[in-house]
Specification:
Helix content is 35%, strand content 26%. It is of the alpha/beta class. It has 3 domains: 93 residues, Rossmann fold; 67 residues, Dna Ligase, domain 1 (2-Layer Sandwich), CATH 3.30.1490; 166 residues, ATP-grasp fold, B domain (D-amino Acid Aminotransferase, Chain A, domain 1, 2-Layer Sandwich), CATH 3.30.470. The strands form 3 sheets. The protein has a 7-stranded mixed β-sheet. The longest helix is centred in the N-terminal third of the chain and has 13 residues.
Length: 366
């Protein structure tokens, strides 16, 4: 990335955007942030903000900005925003220097079914899957073995709350009922998979900064505790038996692309085999753990440094508010939470920042 860039645009204003906003602002960049009024980064002291009152405003404002400036460098910090722009703004990757890039790679990785095609080429296992639309067109369902899990193959909503994030199906009757409820648009975007279990200890993610399909700085993490489906409250660096193979599998998968940007690749260890669950080609929710592992992460990403030394400690990330709620429900985890909080050299927080505290207190208010 050029050292001459003085202005950056960030789309989406969740915790991932807040991380980028703070880091780039402290590097001296002028940041313009686009997000909904209730998104947490909109309450940071950093950057200039444009409030998006309705989803139609996003493309309208981006088109206006594209006319006013030669070309913005634009970081998209949310999978929902990224999917929406791919679907509703065909010229986005022409009008802006977009991160994540390139468009073809992003389009493949953002879809589970398309990313599984890449996985096949490197002999990486993934759950047996079928889109609901294709399943409905089939007459023979005798090969379905329950339980099954239904997920979004790709996001289709921005401000509209989806019907669900995931759904577990235990019988054919539950499957029939789901198909009756879903719209044709939803059936095209929902995928049913064999269910590999709910045990978090076998959920391993590989988060990285990638340049032209090659991971530059990466870390394997275990999602120790979930606040709800897909939302972590406690994550720690994973150095177990499968770490090297997971990193290798992720690298092989990404080598087929020209992807540049932050991403995480989610895996599941099931019956001693590594399964690809999904790829999230955008800054991941626990991205601050990557900065803790590599203190020079941002100068490296900006091209200001050619190397980034590793923190020798086994690093951890925690969202205190979410984890406290879970501890109230399961007090047996209290001592583990306290040990993380007291690990001053090896832990980082989701939102808390003493130099920019307002987002944290806005989170409390919510």
């Amino acid at each position: 990335m050029s050292k001459k860039i003085a202005h950056l645009l960030i789309v989406g204003a969740g915790p991932q955007a807040l991380f980028l906003l703070r880091e780039f602002s402290r590097m001296g960049f002028n940041i313009l942030l686009l997000g909904r009024p209730n998104e947490i980064a909109m309450h940071s002291k950093y950057g200039e903000k444009i409030r998006l009152e309705k989803e139609e405003d996003l493309v309208k404002i981006l088109r206006q900005l594209a006319l006013e400036k030669e070309q913005w460098t634009c970081y998209v910090a949310s999978g929902f925003y990224l999917a929406y722009l791919l679907n509703h703004y065909p010229e986005f990757y022409i009008d802006y220097q977009v991160i994540p890039n390139n468009k073809e790679s992003v389009t493949s990785l953002i879809s589970k079914s398309k990313s599984y095609l890449l996985a096949e080429k490197v002999k990486l296992d993934y759950p047996k899957s079928v889109l609901l639309k294709e399943l409905e067109e089939r007459k023979d369902w005798s090969d379905i073995r329950f339980p099954q899990i239904v997920k979004w193959d790709r996001d289709i909503y921005l401000y509209t709350k989806p019907r669900f994030k995931t759904a577990i199906l235990n019988t054919l009757e539950e499957l029939r009922q789901l198909l009756q409820k879903c719209s044709p648009k939803e059936k095209e975007a929902l995928i049913m998979q064999e269910y590999l279990g709910a045990d978090l200890k076998n959920n391993i993610s590989y988060g990285a900064y990638v340049l032209n399909g090659k991971p530059q700085l990466g870390i394997c993490v275990n999602e120790v505790r979930h606040y709800r489906s897909g939302v972590s409250s406690m994550v720690e660096e994973y150095t177990g038996a499968y770490a090297a193979e997971i990193e290798s599998k992720a690298s092989q998968l990404l080598a087929q692309t020209g992807f540049t940007g932050f991403l995480d690749v989610e895996f599941k260890i099931f019956k001693d085999r590594i399964y690809l669950l999904e790829v999230n080609p955008r800054p991941f929710g626990f991205i601050r753990i990557l900065k803790l592992k590599y203190p020079d992460l941002i100068p490296f990403v900006l091209g200001l440094k050619t190397e980034a030394a590793q923190n020798p400690y086994r690093v951890k990330w925690i969202n205190c508010m979410r984890d406290m709620v879970l501890i109230l429900k399961a007090p047996k985890h209290l001592f583990h939470m306290l040990s993380v909080l007291l690990d001053f050299k090896g832990r980082t927080f989701d939102v808390w920042d003493s130099k920019d505290p307002k987002p944290f207190f806005y989170q409390l208010k919510r």
